[in-house]
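Recap from last week: sequence in, structure out.
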Amino acid sequence: MVMKKGKLTVVQTEIPDVLWIQAQDLVAAGWFRDLDELMLVALRRFLESHPGESIEEFIRQDVEWGLRGDE
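Predicted structure tokens:
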């Protein structure tokens, strides 16, 4: 579920229990102020390390593989 909230968007998602526990542990240890901050940092780092053109190339490769099979 995605909801707009001013200049923010609220996103509801499901994650594996093991990731949830690890995230809570990082907050409890003081690495992040709260789970919102952890999620923002994680998403920002992922997007910075995976620029759009790289993702488009991965999609192209997947489509080509799907059309040709495992040659």
